[in-house]
C-alpha cells in the first residue's frame, strides 16, 4: 500500500487514497451482513480441505481443526465477535439437522449386515456410551474441573445438536459442549484409525461402530474416507448412541450426584 | 433435489414436533432420521434422487461442525483455567472409549460365532 503512494507511474497509486475510505465503508457494511461470514466459513473450509488433500489425507491436518483455526485467526485480527460471525455461519450450522436426518440413507443401504450384527452392535453401543460419559466425568473431576465443565463434557461423544440439548437440560453450558463435541470428533478422526490398527481391528463394521460411538459426525466423515461400509456403520452408531446417551445420561448424572441435588 | 430436500426437512420437522409434544429426551433430527429410515423400509427402497441428495449433504458433513467449533472463542477463560482436566477428558477419554467400544464389539462377535459353531456342532451330532 505504502509503496503504491510513492510510485505515481504505477497508475494504481493515484487511486489508492480514494479507495481507502470506501474500503472501510464496504467492510463495515459487509462485516455486518451474513454473506461475509457464511462465505468466509466455506472458503476457510475449502482451503483446509485443499491442505488436507495436499497432505495426502494425513489425519493430523483435520479439515475441521484447520478451518476453525483459520476462522478464529480472521475473527481475532478483524475484532469480530462470535455472535456476528454466527449470524452468517448459522446457515451452515443449520444443515447439521438435515444431514443428521439423511444418515438414514447409508443406514438403509447396510440393512442386511445390520440385522446380522444387531447383538454385537447393541453390546458395543451400551458399553461405549457408558465409557464415553463416565471416563470424561471421572477424568475431569479427578483433575479438578468444576461441575458445569464436567456436565458439559459428559455428552462430548454425541453429535453436536444432540449433545447441546442434553447439556442444556442437565445444567451444562451448551456452547462449551459444542466445542468439546467438535474437539472429541477431531481427536477421534485424527488418532482413531491408528488406535484401531494397533488393536488389530480389521472389520470395517467394527471400526465404524467404534468411530461413530466415540466421534459422532466428524468421526463418521473420516470413516467415509476409509470405506463406505465403515462410514455407514459409523453413522448408525452415531445415531443410536445419540439416542442412548440422551436416554441414559440424566440417570447417570443423577446417580453420580451431579444434578438434582 | 428439491423433492428429496423436502422429504428430509419434513422428517426433521416431524421429529422436532414429536419431541416437543412428547418431551422425549432425544433431539428432533435423530428422531427424524429414524422416521426417514422407517419411510425407506415402507417404500422398499431409496429413489435415486434421495440417495444423491443425502450423499451430497454427507459428503461435507465435517464442514457443518465448523461454526460450532469456532465457538471455542467464547470459552478461552474457562478452558485456560481447567485445561488439564479438559485435555485429559478429550484425549484419554476419547481414545479409551474408542478402544473399549471396538474391543466390545469384536469380542461379542467372536463370542456369538463360537456359540453358533457349538450349536451347529451339537445339532450335527
UniProtKB/TrEMBL annotation, chain A:
Q: How does it sit in the membrane?
A: Multi-pass membrane protein
One GO CC term on file: membrane
Question: Per its UniProt record, what InterPro entries does this chain match?
Answer: CidB/LrgB (IPR007300)
Tell me where in or outside the cell this protein is found.
Membrane
User: Which keywords has UniProt assigned to this entry?
Assistant: Membrane, Transmembrane, Transmembrane helix
**Where this protein primarily resides, as one coarse class?**
membrane
* Transmembrane parts of this sequence: 26-48, 60-85, 91-108, 115-143, 176-199, 232-253
Q: Which Pfam families does this chain map to? A: LrgB
The answer to whether keyword Transmembrane applies is yes
Statement: the UniProt record of this protein carries the keyword Membrane = yes
Write down the PANTHER family for this protein, in alphabetical order. PLASTIDAL GLYCOLATE_GLYCERATE TRANSLOCATOR 1, CHLOROPLASTIC (PTHR30249:SF0), PUTATIVE SEROTONIN TRANSPORTER (PTHR30249)
Question: What protein is this chain from?
Answer: TIGR00659 family protein
UniProtKB/TrEMBL annotation, chain B:
Which keywords are on file for this protein?
Cell membrane, Hydrolase, Membrane, Transmembrane, Transmembrane helix
This protein's superkingdom? Bacteria
Which spans are transmembrane here?
24-42, 54-76, 82-108
Looking at the keywords, is Transmembrane present? yes
**Ribonucleoprotein as UniProt keyword:** no
Q: Where does it localize? A: Cell membrane
Q: What is its main location?
A: membrane
**Record membrane topology:** Multi-pass membrane protein
GO terms, molecular function = hydrolase activity
Name the GO cellular-component terms.
plasma membrane
Known Pfam families for this protein? LrgA
Protein's recorded name: Putative effector of murein hydrolase LrgA, UPF0299 family
Originating species: Thiocapsa roseopersicina
From the broadest rank down, the organism's phylogenetic lineage runs:
Bacteria, Pseudomonadati, Pseudomonadota, Gammaproteobacteria, Chromatiales
